[in-house]
Amino acid sequence: MNRDSHLILLCLLLSLACNRRPGQATNASSKTAALMGIPGSATHIRQVTGPIDDDRLVHAGDRQQDWLTYGLNYAEDRYSPLTQINKDNIRTLGLAWSLDLGTQRGLEATALVADGIMFLTGPWSMVYAIDTRKGSVIWKYDPQVPRSYGEKTCCDVVNRGAALFKGRVYVGTLDGRLIALDASTGIPVWSVMTVDTTKPYSITGAPRIVQGKVIIGNGGAEYGVRGYITAYDALSGKQVWRFYTVPGDPAKPFESKAMKDAARTWTGEWWKYGGGGTAWDAMAYDPALNLLYVGTGNGSPWDRNYRSPGGGDNLYLSSILAINPENGQLVWYYQTTPGESWDFTATQPIILADLILKGQKRKILMQAPKNGFFYVLDRTNGAFISADPYVYVNWAKGVDQTSGRPLENRSARYTKENSDVAPDYDGGHNWHPMAYNPRTGLVYIPARENIATYGHDPNWIYNKRGGGVGNGWNVSIGFDSSVPTRRDTLASRKDPRGMLIAWDPVQRKEIWRVDQKNNWNGGVLATASDLVFQGTADGFFVAYDAKNGAVVWQVSVGGGVIAPPVTYMVDGRQYVSLVAGWGGGVGMKFKSAPLQPGRVYTFTLGGTKEFPEFNKSIVTSIPEIPFSATNEEITHGRELFRSYCSTCHVIAHGGGGLAPDLAFASPTTHRNFLAIVRDGAYLPFGMPRFGNRLSERETLDIQKFILSSAKRARYQSK
Ligand code: HEC
Asked: Which of 23, 267, 353, 387 is placed for a possible disulfide with 310 were both Cys, Cβ 3.0 to 4.6 Å?
């Protein structure tokens, strides 16, 4: 027996202890299966994922079996050539298997599938290798992200996906590490810290592999950081280059010519606040042009008056950057929202396509960023082609066709008044992937509409630590009651709405839309049989006719979905997999289906597997807990709840996927309230410790507010 098999035997005997070792892959029994050479086991993975090299990635789209990279291919169009499932037979699409991932927090990841093995990421940057033939976990890797990190992330402890290359799985962790795992065992090969750990950086996005390098960005612009992306050698983990997206302190040497140029568009002392521009999601790559496209995020803080008081475009916030992947040099940029002040990120998915425009074949890229305009650019040189509103927009009248700059409505800048702005900070479209079908010529956008009131917060002070003031956000947005508020007359739009939009980028208009119950719906998958698949926030998995939006198939998956479905082929059968588990922070603010454990559902033609029991509601009744409180205490508690707790919790608002609805907290929880909230009793589960920010009295006021809201909800439900 070799050392490994000793370890495996030991793990079998003490499987619990092995499973809980920090930073280790788990599931001893599947390792044993691997040793025994059972098909679909770990050994099998080594054989089949070995050949994922540059060439296979360049042709990822044409290799029909697999889903090898985040957006399916380098163009990130999420258009699968598979046609076994089509409009004629979709009636027989049924469940092949479902797998409970044992988590209730939100799942946003795109599953990767190579030769029948699925690689999925989950909350706290966990990685799962799943045998798609059986629907069972082969190994699971927990990078042991400190649970206190939960308060440094704007929008839940999510992860959107992994990358595969030469027998390895790459994942960026919430606390800023980039880890290469052995695909066959889930054991780390190397790990590098990609961020300055004294700053509130986080990683939720998927790494991409380009020319043997792993490219990774980061997030944290709500807390005060400076954005960048870094390329590491995929095999050794050695840093190859880093590209900052906004300039640092001009008293120090600039890292690149791009930074020197960018610094001219900033004023004041922005670098003290980080500046922002974090690249936390979108990338695409054109191997022929040798250009890597990266979308950058919002300003940090949001209000330009604080960040750059003399004005300026503040490059390269909210921009699409074309970077030479060999050396990390900027080749061109296009800024969607100059002088960004609304959290209008351009980190939304980027899709590359070739379109015939005015009789000419053009290499273009497309994006539907948060600011509500659908952009088409020439991806060879960044030239502006078109931008049109795909949802209701009031911050700009349009985009100037010659300069490519937005025609802003001055009041949207909330300098002298508070202002109702559309879209809101969650965007006309967020990270939820869109898809492009070249047969229909349509882009399918999981869109949303809402209005938010923005105001200059006269009392804002920069908080270096992040996670210290209120919910820790450093966004500097407030509501100044001493100045007037400009209201949008379409007040009805304030109710957030969600819709799936089929957009024609050539005719520059919407072709069809499906209005949805909720506004935080799942990412989209398009297939060559002209189907569009999407999971919804209210718990359905739906297939639409790509030509007209007619529903051709749907099933209930019990709970809300935000992750995009994927499709792949194993042993001659086409499968569609969907990860259900709603969350992502903002999602919680709205009504949804009941909370369900995170699950992978996999469908195939003729699938007959029974659905698992759905959890009908979290707790059926709100407990009756006696308390006494004055109105002042309750009002004070409400204010504190809004700034400290509401990013994660709701009260009497139904399900979701982030943190418990506090109306349902038990008498025991309320007896331990101070220990949970101030002393960090639930820190290991991701509930922050507030002892350094909230006094005992303040905490008790929050509790009184929770109890009074719960009581009201109890009466209403009677
Ligand atoms: C970063 C997200 C986050 C924030 C902010 C947050 N919580 Fe939590 N909280 C959680 C999570 C996650 C749990 C669930 C832990 C578990 O799995 O049991 C939790 C659990 C709780 C519980 C126990 C609920 C139960 O029924 O077991 C209470 C009470 C609570 N939080 C109160 C608060 C209060 C009060 C605030 C604001 C001062 C707050 N939380 C802010 C994430 C958060």
From this structure: 267
